[in-house]
Amino acid sequence: MPIPSMKRNIEPWQDPNAEPYIQIESISKKYAFIEAVRNVSLSIYKGELFSLLGGSGCGKSSLLRVLAGFEAPTSGRVIIDGVDITKLPPYERPVNMMFQSYALFPHMTVYQNIAYGLKQESLPKSVIHERVMESLDLVQLSSHANRKPNELSGGQKQRVALARSLVKRPKLLLLDEPLTALDKRLREQTQFELVNIQERVGITFILVTHDQEEAMTMSTRMAIMEEGRIRQVGAPHNVYEFPNSRFVAEFIGSVNIFDGVVVEDEFDHVLIESPEANCLIYATHVGATPVGSNVSVAIRPEKVMMSQTPPAGNRNCTKGIVRDIAYLGDISIYYVELPSGVRVQSSLPNLLRLSERNVTWDDEVYLFWRAENGILLTA
Amino acid sequence: MKHTLRLRTLRQTAQRVQSKVRFQSIIISIPLAWSLLFVLVPSLLVLKISLSKCRLGLPPFTELLQHADLYLYNVAVYFGNYLAIASDPFYFSVVLSSFLMAAASTILCLIIGYAMAYGISRAPKRYHIVLILMIVLPFATSFLVRVYAWMSLLNTHGIVNTLLLKIGLISAPLRMLDNNYVVCLGMVYCYLPFMILPIYATLDKIDKSYIEASYDLGASKWQSFWRIILPISMPGVLAGCSLVFVPALGEFVIPELLGGARTMTIGQTIWCEFFNNRDWPLACAIAVLMMFSFVFYIILSRILPNFTKTGT
Question: What is the mean pLDDT of residues B72-98?
């Protein structure tokens, strides 16, 4: 799991005085048999790279199509820069889209593809030429201006599609799975390139993806969607460290979840008795968790520590037997079976060579974690 | 062991490739033989007759090779037929009127056919097959029957005239047959599917995201049609136009039945020379000229797109 990047020092969503640039107000989209988008509201700030993350059929693409104007919402409004665009056709919106298939016009050259949008604005030829060359420069494809799309590689097509959608300087750029069609190595490279370009042009991006690594690396904030609803919105590191529900905790990254009952509810901590974990779990307080209520505690595998000798203190500590070790090169994931039968994942960096390590299959080990690393989940 | 195994598989692959090549050449030789036997040989016969003189008797043309002595043959090539065609303005006017008729029919077919193909391609997917069937199904009946049906519709005692008389819109029956317009109508009716099907095939394959991308970039529906949909569907348009224009140019039955004596097309002229004047060589010369112009057209239509591609 990559470390969530903190590339912007400003976080306008933290500032109560900041005006949102794009307001999505309770958008719903019903089709004949399914409700693809259910009452989604989002405020997105200028210059953000906002990701909509979710599995297939979660409604993220439908929401994107509503924003682009290809689908009319059943209810709700979309406001960009103070203008309600809900009723505008796609060709009158200050919004451009980069398609998953890129949709480069096959009968036009790269130059003509990029110039297409500008020609609709009936700008003088010299201005069109200047801006086309400028955006070709931006994606480093100036030498390919006269190629046809079928003469380009996948990565080049992707860059032409990006240049075409940026050349009109939209207020909002929508990207539908922009990197899915590329192979892994190129995808990782392009992620940073895309972020760099976005920072340079200063256009607000909304990106749809099913790839959490992509969303976490690139976005300022992301929204996790499930069944047409937004489950959580936040900066990648916030969503990862503080998921607000079991669904989000399980969706983003891997997680160990223990169910339990609250036995002590103090102002600074909560104590949970969990037969699954076979120990008392000490966690920091979130919201209302009265004594006797059923809760779950989620702990990320990299935050579960492992040792063969008992650690100091008996809170947040349990014992189990190593059943499986997944060697991933940089890290190893230990699957430890607790007496309750629950398997706990603990991922540890491979600081030592495999042969030099002393923990192996069927060893009894202690697992422990710090109180603030246990996430208390009520939903 | 491993080595011999690899050798054997290599040999097997070689054999497989060989047998594949043999199989392919068999497959290709069938249409080739067919074309040689039923296209090239008859064409050469027609060419041969076109280079001979007309005469009374059987066959009604002179032989190309004339026996002179024991082993000596005279080759008698006669270009008179071609000269006659070139010098008689009648043939030029026939070619021109046939050409105009075919062109008019093709353009009408294109306008109607494109609109219909576009309509079908935009209809919900499950109706496509039904709509296509509705266009193709009438063609299960014989071509002649359908042309006769138009005759009986448009006759002076036909259904349309009877109806109009009954309603009282006209007092005397209209003369709707025997003119160029009705020939054009017949051609459009008969050749429309050949226009619709290839255009539909290309329109149906156009990725919807092209159109959405065009809207997204600020083009209206009308602009998107002219600048995206129409250019991408051009291969279908060209195929459809060729499929309509070529047979329409040589069409004989429709002008003969619907156009009567008022029209004179290339097909009718060949018929006339062949059966009325019994001038086989001249008829063949016209046929040869027509054939060459088609071949020329096909070569041109192959070369021109490549030419424009390198041009841009």
Answer: 87
| Binary contact (A101, B227; C-beta < 8 A) | no
A181 in contact with B at a CB cutoff of 8 Å?
no
Residues of B in contact with A100 (CB under 8 A): 209
pTM of the model: 0.79
Instruction: Give the CATH class of B88-278.
Output: mainly alpha
| Chain B residue with minimum CA distance to A172 | B216
Confirm whether the ipTM is greater than 0.90. no
Q: What is the mean pLDDT of residues B44-57?
A: 87
Judged by phi (left if over 0) then psi (alpha if -120 to 50, else beta), residue A285 lies in: beta
The pLDDT value given to residue B307: 55
Closest approach of A93 to chain B, Cα-based (Å): 8
- Under the banding of pLDDT at 50, 70 and 90, the label for residue B52 is confident
Residue A108 C-alpha, separation from nearest chain B C-alpha, in angstroms:
9
Please report the pLDDT score of residue A5 as a whole number. 46
For range A143-165, the mean pLDDT: 93
pLDDT tens track for A114-129: 999 999 988 899 999 9
Instruction: Give the integer Cα–Cα distance in Å for A128 and A121.
Output: 10
Task: Write down all domains in chain A, each with its CATH number in brackets.
Answer: 12-231 (3.40.50.300), 254-377 (2.40.50.140)
